[in-house]
Amino acid sequence: MKIFIDTAELDEISEAISWGIIDGATTNPSLIKKAVDRRAGKVTMDEYIREIVKIVPGPVSLEVLGGTFDEMVTQGRLLYEKFSPYGEVAIKIPVNPSIRKDDGLEFDGLRAIRQLSDEGIPVNVTLIMTPEQALLAAKAGAAYASPFAGRIDDYIRAGMGMKRGVDFQKGDYFDHALLRKALERKMDETIDRLDSIPEVYVNSDLKKLVAVGQDNGVFSGVDLVAKILRIYRNYGFKTEVIAASLRNARQVREVAELGVHIATLPFEVIKQMVKHYKTTEGMKNFTADIVPQYRSLFEQK
Ligand code: E4P
């Protein structure tokens, strides 16, 4: 599995590169704006992005501003021409840039993906929230598809009336297995009270229970990634899946178990991955056990 860093902070990018584990980077306009603003006039946007592209040992995803097919294609070409001479660049295009029901933009994302891909520009399709969108992204020729796992977990929890910052924090692991267990038990209790299968099928309490804890058959962000991988493998699509919007180390482990091609990770999540209480305890014990004779092995003559 490749690891991309999901940030536009040069300090974070170079530190993570120095750990020897970075294969690429993903940015978005908000991340880049924040990073450049922090340098208050000391660097231009152009110089800043060029620097990122130069130091990252792999593709850097740069996002268009969205909108119409023409705008996205023009912006995608411009970003690619401007920055690909300095390193590897992929252009991030939203799978569906539509904001209003009647703006007519629903398929402009797919059209732009097809156009840029046909021109040889690698496209990273962003804001993927369903396996169906990922299927369309692959059909349109995308080099990468980015399902937003954490945001789907947020959405499922919001559907159950849970509030971020109150009932759960952004980085909290979403325990969908526990939730499924609780739901199954509730469903069994309801089914036990009914007499026939048709009654079970039409019972409104059961219908409500079935709808809890999922987004149209997707049970978590990790499940979204699993379904996309299954579909891509079924048909041999070459599009690589970038598990995005990952907020904790356990989610990273779960997408790695699925065999996802790439995980794009915030700096803090990478830092979380290296930690364990027993590792630190073991280090303390080994260090305490060092005897002078053993230390002398390493002393220069
Ligand atoms: C990556 O491409 C996305 O910009 C990022 O992973 C979104 O993460 P978030 O949902 O935690 O904001």
Describe this structure in words.
By secondary structure, this protein is α/β, with parallel strands linked by helices. The protein folds into two domains: 2-174 and 220-287, Alpha-Beta Barrel (TIM Barrel); 175-214. Helices cover 52% and strands 12% of the residues. It is built from 15 helices and eight strands. It has helices at 10-18, 29-38, 45-55, 69-83, 108-118, 131-139, 149-159, 176-192, 197-202, 204-211, 221-235, 249-258, 267-273, 277-288, 292-296, and strands at 2-6, 24-26, 60-63, 89-94, 123-128, 144-147, 240-243, 262-265. Strand 1 (2-6), helix 1 and strand 2 form a beta-alpha-beta unit. Helix 1 runs parallel beside helix 3, helix 7 (149-159) crosses helix 11 (221-235) and helix 8 runs antiparallel to helix 10 (204-211). The longest helix has 17 residues, at 176-192. The model has no long low-confidence stretch (mean pLDDT 96). It binds erythose-4-phosphate. Erythose-4-phosphate binds at residues 6, 26, 28, 126, 146, 148, 150-151, 244-245, 247, 264.
